[in-house]
Structures are given as C-alpha cells and as structure tokens.
Amino acid sequence: MKAFVQRAAMYAVVLFAAAWPWDVYAYLPWAGLDVTACLALCLVALWLADLVVTRRPRLPFELAWPIAVLLVYVWALYAGGRYPAPLLATLVLLLFAATHRFARSKALAAYCLRATMLSCGCVAAVTLAARFGAVGPTAYSLDTGATFCGPRDVAGGVAALAIGLALALRDAFSAEGGRLRRAAAAVAGLLCAAALGSALVPAAAHFVAWRPPDLAGAGLPGLAASLVATWLVARVMAKLIVARRLAPAPVLATCFAAVAVAGALACLVPTPLRLHHGLLLGLAAAASARKEVPRPWLPAPGLLLIPLACLAALNLFRVYPDNHSDPRNYDVAARSDLAEGRYAVLARRMDFFEAQAPGERRTHLWRAKAWLEQGELGRAATEFVASCREPGPHGQLLPGPRPDEADAFVTALRDAYSSLPGPPAHLGFERALVAASRPKSAVWALRLRVDAISFNVDALAIARVPPGPLIEAVAFLLGDPAVTEHLHDWTSADLLAVLHSAGARIERAPDAAPRDALPLVALAQSEAGSLRTCVIAGASACEFARPARLVTAPATPVWAGTHWECTQNPPLSFRLPGVDGPVAAFEMGPAGTLRAGGGAAVEAVPVSDAVAVTVWLP
Amino acid sequence: MLDAIQRQRLERRIAAVIALAIVVLAVLAYAAGRLRARTGEPPLPAPVVTAAPEAGE
Known about the structure:
heterodimer; A: alpha+beta; 5-stranded mixed beta sheet; elongated; B: 1 helix
C-alpha cells in the first residue's frame, strides 16, 4: 500500500510539473476538468492517505509551523471577509507538503524541472505563433497590451516564461546530461526569451501602468501572513544553499533559480496564488532533504509533452463556455465589469476580443447590457441587434446570445423604455424585437407608438401616397425586409407617423423629381461601425452596407433596382430617370439628407445608432 | 561535517538574510509604485488594434 501510494504520487508530481505551464490549455473539455487541479487534488489525497497509514507527516518542524500558521491565517481572514479563496491557498499549502513528502529525490526533482522547462518552451512557441495571428492569446492586459498563450493572466505568463528561461539556462550550461539535453534546453531557453521579449518590449511603452503588489491594502493580518510565507520561501532557499554546500548537486541550483525567479516576480508585480507555487517550493524542499527515496522508471520528459500537446490542441482554437478559468471566455470578466460598473473597461475588453475575432457577436450583447445600464437605450438596442445577426465567415470565440438571453434582454429593454415619458425618437425597441425573431411583437409595438403620438399632415396629400415604399422604409429601419408582410394592412398615414416619430424629415418633393419615383425615401443608418443606406424611389429600392471607415475611399456600391443608378459613394449621387422625361440628378449626403442638383453635400457620418430619414411626398 | 543543530542554525541565518532581501525588494517596489502613483501620469490605455474591415464587407 505504502509503495503504491509513493509510486502513484511520484507520477502525479511528474505529470503536474509537466502540465502546469499549459494552464488554460490543460482543460479536458468533455469532462469539464482542469487537469492540473485534478492532479493537485490527487496528490493531496495521496498525501492524506499516506498520513493516515503511516501516521507521520514527514515534514520537518521548520516547514510545518509556517504551513500551520498560514492555514490558520487563511481561514481566519476568510471568516473575516478579507480573503476570497481559502480553498486554493489551502490546496497550495497541502500540495507543498505532499510534494515535499513524495518527491524526496534529487533525480526526480531534476526530471520534474526538465519537464517544466520543456512545457514552458512549448508555451513560448505557441505565444510566438500568436504574434503572427496563428492562435489567439489567453492572457492579456488592457493597460499594457501584453499577451501570452497558455497562462490565465499576464503575471502568470511572465512568471512561467521567466521560470522556464531560468531552468533552460541552468540546463543548457550544466555539465550534467548529454548534448541532446543541452540542445533541447537551449532551444527552450531561446523560445522563452523570445516570447518574453515579444510580450514585454512593446508593453514597455506602457510601463506607467505598472503597479507593484499593494502591501498596504492587505492590512496587518495580510502583511503578517505575507511575512510568514516569505519566511517559508526563505527557509527553503536556505536549505538549498546549505544542502549544496554539504553535497553539491546541479539540481539544487536549478531549484534555487526557479524559486528565486518566482519570488522576485511576486515582489515586483501582483501575482495571484497558483497551484504550481506549492509544487515548485515543495520540489525545492524535497531536493534539499537528506534522506532520499529511489526514483521510479520514467519516460524521457519530452514524451510527456505528447499527451499534453494533444490536450492543448483541443483548447488552442476553441473556447469552452464551461471553462471559467479561460480568459478567452470573456463572459466571466464582462459579468464582473458590468456588476462593478466598469463600463469603459468592459468596452475596451470587448474591443480586444473583437480584434481577435472580427465576427464576434456576443461582445455586442455585453456592450448592449452596458449601454442599457447607463440608460443609453438606442445604443443598447443597436448593439443587441448586432449581437443577433447571422454569424459571419470569421471564427467566433463564443456563440451569440441564446434565446433565453435575448428574451431577458428584450424584457429589460422594454422595462427601460416603459419608464420613459413618451415614445423615443428612434425605433430601438422595435428593432430589438425583430432581431430577437419577434416581428409580430415589433409591429404591435409600432401600433402602440402610432397611437401614442400626434402627427398632423395634409390628409388629402397623404391619401395620394402609395404605402408600399413607406412599408419598405419602415422594414429597413427595423432591420428585416420580412416585416413588410406584417405591415401590409397599414395606411400611409400610420407609416408616415412611424417615420416621423423616428425623426424623418417629410417634405414635398422638388419639381425636378420625376413623379413616378415618388414617394422617395432616403435612409442612412449607422450601426456597429457600418453605414447602411437605402433609397426607395417609387416601387424600387436599393440597399447596401459599407464600412464607415471607408468614408473617403471611392467604392463601387452594389445596386439593385431598375429605376435609378449610382455614380459615386459617398456622397451618394443617383439619377432618377422619368418614364418619358429627362434624367434628374440627386445627391444624398452621408447623413441621409437629400438634395437635388448634385451639389456638394459632404456631412459627417451619423454617430452610432443614429438614423437619418428623408421622405419626399408627391 | 555539520551536525543537525549546526545545520539548522546555518539554515536559519541564511534564511534570515534571504527573507530580509525579499522584504527589502518588496518594500522598494512598493515605495517606487507609491512614488510613481503620486508623481506620474495615470496609466494610459493600450491601443487596441481593431481589425480593418475589408473593402466591400
């Protein structure tokens, strides 16, 4: 039993040492398991089993008392509401004790550190590949722009690559081992250095964003706990130094380098506690122990990378919504941003992910929620509509809104609109309903809007207006041509009232306009970074969308329709040939204004979610 | 060869030096951070590169 526990624990230590640098990528999707956390739990369980069987913790007093004190501190601080993650801290401390118990072999420690170094090299290679757009980063900093692949935060990325670099340098220049081992270490070291440099050199321009650990914010109990932890680290490092003085071994210096790098980084940047901290410290303490246990047979450390690389391949290009520790699963961070009112941070976070995945839709749902919280209902509706669009050809990190999420948002939007004193000057709520696949509800909401407003126009003039073009115009504003079938029984007066309430300018057409092209409706709608324009002349319509950033670039718009043609865009110039009359030239400015004669009408592109509508009546 | 007590004593001395070095490093970093927070500019947001939409998109 004891031998089995010892052997199983050694394998668990080795696997953990190889797996921890992969961090986010070490996630088993179908089981929903974090492999490193499972290995840590196994190791602690084996340690507890060994403790029950042997009734000896095999932990020297100088290492046991800091652990006991830290455990008491952690749970006392948690009880006082000043420490959020006592389980993680407990697991780290017990992992330290377990590693010290089972890895008491210099050869095993050296093997584990080599496995860690090779994994760090692989993670560095993936990080470098991400610089060329091959994969998306997992860790990112909105302040400095530094990104890493594998770790879940930038501090963790810096620490993993720095530890990998330190281990690689030790191995590459060590007299121990063959040429192949030194070559592998040199390659891993170069990769770590290159990845670290590629992340930190561009971020150096934003060095002003650097923040050291907040010592004062921890309070006196936190400071006391930090001091005890510092003493534990210092004691382990001292053990390494003394052990090396008594019996020199290369692994002792390697362990010292790893612990020193991790400790120095923890002093300089706020470093969240991670499971591998317990492992590294435990390996160092175990390597410095006087009594050793024999190392079991183990394959070459490089072979351990094969299953880990397979596991990483499952996570490299896909984000699993159930993996809450993956920063690419931005739902977790966005929810936190929204709950704490960090709307600017949320917007920058969504910018970051939209840059990674240009066709991302779910980011717009979070933007919509943020605008809704800020009372910007029109923008909230526009972003929601963008989140409900069909997925594009680009890959997506997370799926679009689920039906229940869309319903919940529309309900919240309805409540927000209901609290307004009158109908808003845009069709945001109705567009949101259409986007949520509820066109009938949208038409009902339009009916309520018409009933709530007063719109006085010449009844005789309106009687001459065919409703078809107006129906198409309203459908365009709602974002779905299929809505026309729900509007077929609406009168021109009601449709004009809807357009009027949405801010339309309703005018008599100039004499130059051919009569058969009337009513003429010109619409320009800015949404989600693009400008949609539409001109409905009589019974024909044309619609095209183009990115707003191409506002000054010549572009050839796509036209549909039979009665008019486009010559330039923007400003959008078009001609309306009469049935038997001359061709009349018109120009629609970028803001949707319409003028006859082709005069220059360069105006600003409408701001996001703005809509400009001009209606020319016969 | 050191006996157990001498080894423990030596370890404690070295650990004290290392712990002091860590504390000094942490305090220096904290002081630098405080000083920079008082005198320096607030952190600038990193430029977020927005993917350029292709023509006709």
